[in-house]
Design brief:
single chain; 799 residues; mainly alpha; 3 domains; two-stranded antiparallel sheet; two-stranded antiparallel ribbon; 35 helices
């Protein structure tokens, strides 16, 4: 009783102290003489100069620039005079908010005001003639001006100050000393002005660097912010002793204060950085889009030869020759078939330890990420080397494929169902942890391709069935490489149409894509049949703007307009949502929730409920997407909700592919160290199979490893302990993952912006529709980043 009473008394005293501190802080508005006078004088000078300069330069100095400068002065004064400054002694959140204003809010607002001319024009003429004019033309002044506005000074100065002042010794020094606190503010504010000067380039200054460097400039700064913020957010104990000993207000602990402060600085600063990053890239792409990438001119109508594009993958030494060779694709397929055979054999008869089996570590943690990265940067190259299409060649050679694929199945709804079932089975049956099941799945895939392509002519399995192929088609939509005709004039004069019909020596396109009408990479396997069949050498693989295919909506060969294909839009959303679900089931919060549900509902573990539940969850997400499309359609000139749904589903694809890339980076990073031992184990196992048990020691070692894994306390054989990503490979991987997500959000925002411009007729409708799009895509981005920062399961990996 005494102990309980004492604890209640202590809590009461702490609450009383906290309330008094809070009351004192909220009454701590101050009017610091120097900053207050400086802000007032700057406001008067700017307003006078803006009024005078605007009389002759109305286009360069509109009203919004004056409003921006005034807002910058106001936020700067609030950061120094409001209770935020006093709260900084008790809450890290308040101190980080102050830093954020000084670095990322007040400086860009001031620079957007284009202060150079108004501040000079606002000074009295006597002062300009007798003072400023004599100094402004001096060489040392010119040197200082060029030094402080140089991009390197802004970037290095700001990031160096950001890192240095958040180190515990320097941070504690600024908390203890008012003088050092002012120095800290100056170290943040002055380089920030230079940093944002380079980014925003106010009139009438001239850029020192190419504008193409600005995205890298901003992304690098965001990477530094991510590293510092993540170290605070994921800290297991408070970093700064002052906050441990300070009275706790608002009822949050020192550690909670630190986590929220780090996360807030991380998210808000990244979002602020993303705004100029997206607008800069948009302006650059718009400028480039107005200029034709290249034009083809017929030099000789008889020869039908065209001027070559600046880049054509088919003209690259060795690579182009291999792709154009008669048996180039077949040779790549042969290598893939040999490698897949080794994987299947090792999966069926090799070690059962997932991390040491090629059917475990290699298929899911190496080939899968490599496949994705190839699609993003090089198009659908995997389908070109896919060994699953070899049975089709055999069936065509034997002449047994006679039927046409049914017209009522010529859509993507079948792949939507198959892909959803595959992702469900991947988790339900732990395919990532079963080399034997993975090997059997590969054999079933070969059998399925053989059955379908032995019955139906053409490439029916690839185009209408294969879930892997559909995933690849969707992923290749963000690739900059695209196969197409060099000159439409040459195609118009062509009478044979060998590219789709084929000829006596070369078959045409089995996917029924007519090259002159082909747009984008959907349904294209880069089989090179059209390239080899074209008698005019009029087909190239050229580089286009990334995500360009998501903005256009022309009539496409065999696909019509994508705005009328809700099945393709749904397929894209399945790929996007599966990127989030695949990572979410590996994190601790979701894993704990699923285990609790399995304990409460035993049928969930049997798979009788989870498959319908998976489709129900997918249906719910699709209905949510339709709801967002309906909200956007209200402000659009487009009358069909289906068209808005279809087009903006494609706009989310860069963000979804970024989530896939960020998640698979985790697998690659943790798998590469064990790849060497896995290859050695595979060599030993295959040697044992060939020589009849000559490698008993290797087998015994594998058995001992499995037994050790099975007997580890607190660890299951199917997975290792739940660990934080940052705890294993440091915050550097997380920083790269977040940067990838930032780029994905950037491109999704850009595509959405382009679509909004196409579908609105007024500025108000554009702003309203764009706000819905920004809110929905930012919400998906926030959920993805949250998943990446959670404790993640080490699946099938040897530590």
């Amino acid at each position: 009783m005494a102990e309980g009473g004492g604890r209640r008394a202590a809590d009461g005293i702490e609450s009383y102290v906290s309330d008094n501190v809070m009351q004192a802080v909220m009454q701590s508005w101050s009017f610091p003489l120097g900053p207050t006078l400086g802000v007032l004088v700057a406001a008067v000078i700017y307003l006078r100069g803006w009024r005078l300069a605007r009389a002759t330069r109305p286009e360069e100095l509109p009203a919004w620039r004056m409003q921006s400068f005034m807002a910058g002065l106001l936020t700067l004064w609030l950061a120094l005079a409001s209770p935020i400054d006093a709260l900084g002694q008790f809450l890290l959140i308040a101190h980080m908010t102050q830093h954020l204003i000084l670095m990322s809010i007040a400086p860009p607002l001031l620079i957007l005001g284009a202060p150079q001319v108004p501040m000079l024009r606002g000074l009295p003429r006597v002062l300009i003639r007798d003072g400023v004019a004599q100094w402004i033309n001096l060489r040392p002044v010119h040197w200082l001006q060029r030094f402080f506005t140089h991009p390197l000074f802004g970037w290095i100065g700001l990031n160096l100050a950001f890192i240095a002042w958040h180190a515990p010794p320097a941070y504690e020094l600024a908390l203890r000393s008012n003088s050092w606190h002012y120095v800290e503010h100056i170290c943040f504010f002055v380089p920030a002005l230079s940093f944002w000067w380079t980014v925003l380039q106010p009139w009438p200054s001239q850029a020192r660097w190419s504008r193409w460097m600005i995205p890298l400039y901003l992304a690098g700064a965001d990477l530094v912010n991510t590293g510092v913020s993540a170290s605070l957010s994921f800290g297991s104990r408070p970093v700064y002793p002052t906050y441990v000993n300070a009275p706790r207000i608002f009822g949050i602990s020192a550690l909670q204060d630190q986590v929220v402060a780090g996360a807030g600085m991380w998210v808000i600063a990244s979002f602020i950085t993303l705004i100029p990053l997206s607008t800069t890239i948009y302006s650059l792409l718009e400028h480039k889009r107005r200029k034709p990438a290249y034009s083809f001119t017929i030099l000789n109508a008889a020869q039908s030869r065209a001027v070559q594009a600046p880049f054509d993958l088919l003209r690259v030494p060795f690579v182009g020759k291999l792709l154009r060779a008669r048996y180039g694709r077949t040779s790549l397929q042969g290598v893939s078939l040999l490698l897949m055979t080794v994987v299947i054999v090792h999966g069926l008869w090799g070690t059962r330890l997932t991390a040491m089996n090629l059917a475990g570590a290699l298929v899911w943690n190496i080939f899968r990420p490599l496949n994705l990265f190839l699609f993003v940067f090089a198009g659908n190259l995997f389908c070109m080397a896919c060994p699953f299409t070899l049975p089709r060649a055999l069936a065509k050679y034997l002449g047994i494929a006679r039927l046409r694929w049914p017209a009522w199945l010529k859509h993507k709804w079948t792949p939507v169902v198959l892909m959803t079932a595959f992702f469900w089975a991947y988790e339900q049956f732990a395919l990532w942890d079963s080399p034997r099941t993975t090997a059997l799945l590969l054999l079933a895939y070969i059998l399925g391709a053989l059955v379908v392509d032995s019955i139906f002519e053409g490439a029916s399995f690839c185009k209408y069935v294969c879930p892997i192929g559909q995933f690849n088609f969707v992923a290749s939509m963000v690739s900059p490489l695209e196969l197409g005709a060099k000159s439409q004039a040459v195609c118009a004069r062509c009478t044979t149409r060998d590219c789709i019909r084929g000829n006596a020596t070369q078959r045409g396109c089995e996917l029924e894509l007519y090259v002159p009408q082909k747009v984008g990479n959907l349904d294209c396997t880069l089989c090179m049949d059209c390239v080899k069949a074209c008698p005019h050498d009029n087909i190239a693989i050229t580089a286009q703007l990334p995500a360009r295919d998501l903005v256009r909506d022309p009539i496409r060969s065999s696909l019509r307009r994508l705005s009328s294909r809700m099945d393709i839009a749904t397929l894209v959303l399945v790929v996007i949502f599966s990127s989030l679900a695949s990572a979410a089931v590996m994190i601790a919060p979701v894993g704990d929730r699923l285990q609790a549900m399995e304990a409460r509902y035993p049928l969930l573990g049997s798979g009788l409920v989870t498959l319908p539940a998976s489709f129900a969850l997918l249906g719910t997400l699709l209905l949510l997407a339709v709801g967002v499309a309906k909200a956007m359609q209200v402000f659009s000139t487009e009358k069909s909700v289906g068209v808005v749904f279809s087009r903006f589903s494609l706009a989310l694809l860069p963000l979804g592919m970024a989530m896939w890339a960020a998640h698979l980076m985790f697998h690659v990073t943790l798998t590469l160290p064990s790849l060497g031992p896995a290859l050695q184990q595979a060599w030993a196992d295959l040697g044992r199979l060939l020589h009849g048990g000559g490698h008993a020691a290797a087998s015994a070692m594998a058995g001992m490893s499995q037994a050790a894994m099975a007997n580890m306390p607190g660890m299951s054989q199917s997975s290792m302990a739940m660990m934080l990503t940052r705890g294993f490979e440091g915050t550097s991987l997380l920083s790269v993952q977040v940067l990838v997500m930032d780029l994905g959000l950037l491109f999704s925002m850009y595509v959405g912006w382009r679509l909004v411009r196409q579908m609105t007729a007024s500025a108000g409708s554009m702003a309203a529709m764009l706000s819905v799009w920004v809110a929905s895509s930012a919400a998906l981005y926030a959920v993805c980043v949250w998943v990446l920062t959670q404790p993640m399961e080490m699946r099938g990996m040897a530590m």
